């Protein structure tokens, strides 16, 4: 650490760390988390909030779990400390590690050290804890990925001394529970997340952000401040941006400044970048900077932004409408007039924060004297998009930018946009020094994208038998101050807005609208979860009006193979919604009976059951989204999978390896993995839109198949030949015939480009040649882009190559006196095409349900008020219901081995199912989420039910 206090400012503290005597010199009031990470290099202990809210920093001090972010270093003198890097008292942490890995309890892994420590603490007090005791023990550690259930299972495995039944699974075969290939570093605390590493001489950066939602500002004498602040290297303004001071997702919508040029459009917008030693930045408060603000009127939401005469946030959008989407088929007006029954409603959803436990962080290193090029290590879901944005901001060719994704501590769409990357690039470029940054929790929540708040009006009509005949929706989405993924939301919702049902007459209009609020972007579903609340509520209405059971009306209308969607697309394959509904029908009937029995006598706590269906197109909407993969075989037998798809915790590295290993015919253990680095891998597209299994899975399959073909050709072997690789000897066994190839005897591949049919269509990074081992003798390259067509003016066409389908059922208990809702059970049936890895699919569904539960009942982000994990609540272990999963394999011929995506489908049906259950329990038709207790209580009171 640079510029640290000296003499009396530091304290020498001794303690036992993971069984070893340790002495460290640190400021006495520095947190133990900071001392462990920055002074002892023990970065296994994570920091997610620095406020005692997330539990990521949980360690054990003198036998009890504590938050290391709240504990001053001076307080641990002579203490016994255990962290994730140790095996724990009596080796219990080591046993938990193995169980976590085997159960799939670590997804992104950022919470895993804290979870392991909380569990270690519990087992030190109670060797045979109950499930309730486990929930309580880990209750202070937040996980945004897993839904906690596999974590609890893993702890139970150790508690019950059963070991893990799946620990021995090592097969990579399609359908096997191969433990995640990047899992061990996550459970060992050695995975390197964005805040865990930086060059030793890196400067630190802090961003000064707007305190107002709409304002102009003037800057005073910044140079005087810099000169008066020892250790401060630079105060950067928009004038320091070497290239274009703008970034954004779409080529024609680069509307967000890296540093605001005198005007800000949301609270939290970046204004200045302070670069210097950490101590200098700590000493310099924002209030000491010469910024004079002129606050203006802010457009605080959709109504204000759409009001006649509202000022325009951006001159090129005078009505504040960023983007419109539409779909029109048939004649909705006519069928509404003739329909037997209809239902309509107005629905409202809130901002939802991604709340990944890892705040944004990273570092940039300038290369060359100019500098000439730059490397950025950061947490991201889209390295190639980061590369483009960084290059534009610096005004250099993208080939001079290398993005090296770190382990990603959760994304959920929030790390599809750049955050730290352009700021780091500018700072490193200008100062010619390595620069690092770690966002605080508040900064992360105030400045990064959210789920779009929505206002939706919808109407559905059916015939007397409950068959949908018409559907209309008008949906407005608050996209905040800058475009981000607003156009994507506006275009995806029309396709999905009527739900996964056969309905011939549809009219859906959407708008993404600028306001002076935090930019809204991508968040698991791109607007579809909001729309699902509307269409599922209306389906329940129609069930009531037609006297049909809610299951029956869904089954009767469910899309099936051979049906046409409202965009005119014929669904020729893999439409498993009916199977999903069929498989959970016994649970539905049983739950209804349980609720009826429970509610006899009108108890205060009433039970209800809800059901919802969903569908979701895998990949971009009517846009190309290709992925390219490469597998090389070197003369010494090294088999390398160069995979540009960033694994954000969902398990794509494992799934793609299973696909590649199966297609090639060699064991997963034979592969070395290179993931995500833009200098080493080709563009696999962003990790979003439930596309990596489907799209990159196909690219991996093609790459492996191409390599296998070349190998078989060496022996003139048939397609069923078996391969064995031992060192440089490759054995090809074809029936009774066998040929052994010495890879050292094969000619080296001169260049990576232009070989093989697939390679010709691939934009190969120039760095491949340098990065690929110079001794490659065989390689396979695969590129795949899902077949879609553009949508016409009425939204007609083929927007997606395939869709995921699901039905979920919720059982809730509602205290009608308090308005509180407890989800006690979820049953989820998902058509995933083909299961590549059941553990990972289950993990996605658990995590999706947890986020859907938060959307329905808990989560509401308010700019300026809930910018921390104390005021913004997400589900904890104690909030999770039991979850029963049915996986339907309605194979998709276009998918790799028949597989489709499940990341977003896992979430979409959860909130409407919960809302349906609340209505069943109480009669309250909730149309605004989250259904906070006071809102439900008010609704109950209005209806005289409280
Ligand atoms: S970092 Fe300590 S509780 Fe969040
Ligand atoms: S695995 Fe828990 S936060 Fe990602």
Chain-wise SSE layout:
Layout: E1 11-17, E2 20-26, H1 32-39, E3 58-61, E4 64-67, E5 80-82, H2 92-103, H3 112-125, H4 131-137, H5 149-159, H6 183-188, E6 203-209, E7 215-219, H7 222-228, E8 232-236, E9 263-264, E10 270-276, H8 278-283, E11 291-295, H9 302-306, E12 321-329, H10 332-338, E13 341-349, E14 352-353, E15 361-367, E16 373-378, H11 383-394, E17 401-405, H12 420-431, E18 435-438, H13 441-447, E19 450-451, E20 454-462, E21 468-480, H14 486-496, E22 505-514, H15 528-546, H16 550-557, H17 577-599, E23 605-617, E24 627-634, E25 639-643, H18 652-664, E26 671-675, H19 692-715, E27 722-726, E28 729-734, E29 737-742, H20 756-759, H21 767-771, E30 776-784, E31 803-815, E32 820-831, H22 838-858, E33 882-888, H23 905-908, H24 910-922, H25 933-942
Parallel strand pairs: 1-5, 6-18, 16-17, 21-22, 25-26, 32-33
Antiparallel strand pairs: 1-2, 3-4, 3-5, 6-10, 7-9, 7-11, 8-10, 12-22, 13-20, 14-19, 15-16, 15-18, 20-21, 23-31, 24-25, 24-30, 27-28, 28-29, 31-32
Helix pairs in contact: 2-3, 2-5, 11-12, 15-16, 15-24, 18-19, 22-24
The site of one FE2/S2 (inorganic) cluster has 12 residues, from loops.
Description:
By secondary structure, the protein is an alpha+beta fold. α15 (528-546) packs across α16 and α15 (528-546) packs parallel to α24. The longest helix is centred in the C-terminal third of the chain and has 24 residues, at 692-715. The chain is globular and about 75 Å long. 60% of the residues are buried. Mean pLDDT is 94; it is low at 753-769. The site of one FE2/S2 (inorganic) cluster has 12 residues, from loops.
